[in-house]
Amino acid sequence: MLQIEQDHHRFRQIVRGKIRQNLRKYISHAELIGRKGKHLVSIPVPQLDVPHFRYGEQGSGGVGQGDGEVGTPLGPGEQHRDGPGQAGSEPGEHILEVDITLEELAQLLGEELELPRIEPKGQDRIRQEKYRYSTIRSTGPESLRHFKRTYLQALKRQLASGTYDPARPRVIPYREDRRYRSWTTIEQPVANAVIIYMMDVSGSMTDEQKHIVRTEAFWIDTWLKSQYDGVERRYIIHDAVAREVDEHTFYRTRESGGTRISSAYDVCLQIIEQHYSPEEWNIYCFQFSDGDNWGEDNRRSIRLLREKIAPQVNLFCYGQVESPYGSGDYLRALESAVVPYHDNVLTSQIPDESAIYDSIKTFLGKGK
């Protein structure tokens, strides 16, 4: 049994090494999202064969047995045949699907991107009561009656009073014999977080840009869930008007109107004010857009972000995805009018899937 456990541990270490080696590739593709269960992710890991010798046929020639020419096979095998391919009998390369927990995936993400642990704000002030059934009492609801303890108490009473008959071993509990499970209340500090996603769904945002947003959001969720006891997510979409939606609608809606980013900020502020006090919640805002905004709206959007949103949140991250239709002007406006005044406002450009890796490191690398 010990040898099996050692082999299993070694195998898991090999798997972790393979996943970490290819993590940039996994981060840049949405394949994992389709493989995600409630607690596990299935990851395709190639080439996990343990090296071993393969022996050829005796006397068949090969390396070290005479002169050879360029192109001479080093081992026995069928020569190439012209014509259509036929069914073969030799094994090919194998892809092994390995299940890994979301916690392990988050740990690998943190190690690879060198992400610092987050120090949640308000952790000492927020306390959650937990109940543990660790004691026994003589009173309580019948649903919590402890059968074994009740039986033993009745047996001790009958033995002490001399009413127990070994020839007829009947134990009948009285009311005072009943014992019940009871709980103790444990207070422990707890930190909760909310992630508010905002995305431009106007006509200039294509399905390709939404695909990038969804992939990046998966990794953001994975990391933040590993840092907090509880994480909630809220979704806001907007063109010229904003509204809160569910996750499915967030990634599949496309409008054809104009763009007013301030409308998304208005809804974001309403959500924070009504549900998430900054003193009790760690608030993360992630906005994705192609940078198009109605010219006169830039001033109001920047004012809302500087004066209302940034002072209340742990992080406000703006990711600009490239679109053939977007102007990209909003990123420049943020970097000149907001970023110099708030170190919790971060921006990144995400031209394609390969840039997701660096964007995540930019957003989460400060440990806020």
Number of domains: 3
H/I helix tally: 11
CATH homologous superfamily name of the largest domain?
von Willebrand factor, type A domain
Q: Report the biggest beta sheet as strand number plus sense, adding barrel if it closes.
A: 6 strands, mixed
Chain-averaged pLDDT: 78
What's the architecture of the largest domain, going by CATH? 3-Layer(aba) Sandwich
Task: Write down the Rg.
Answer: 31 Å
* CATH class group of the largest domain: Alpha Beta
Give an account of the 3D structure.
The chain is α/β, with parallel strands linked by helices and 368 residues long. The protein folds into three domains: 1-49 and 93-114, no CATH class; 127-187, no CATH class; 192-364, von Willebrand factor, type A domain (Rossmann fold, 3-Layer(aba) Sandwich). The protein has helices at residues 2-21, 23-27, 31-34, 102-113, 147-161, 207-227, 247-252, 261-275, 297-309, 329-337, 356-364; strands at 40-46, 95-101, 127-137, 180-189, 192-200, 230-238, 242-245, 281-289, 315-321, 345-350. Strands 7-6-5-8-9-10 form a six-stranded mixed β-sheet, sandwiched between helices. Strand 8, helix 9 and strand 9 form a beta-alpha-beta unit. Helix 6 runs parallel beside helix 11 (356-364) and helix 8 runs parallel beside helix 9 (297-309). The longest helix is centred in the middle third of the chain and has 21 residues, at 207-227.
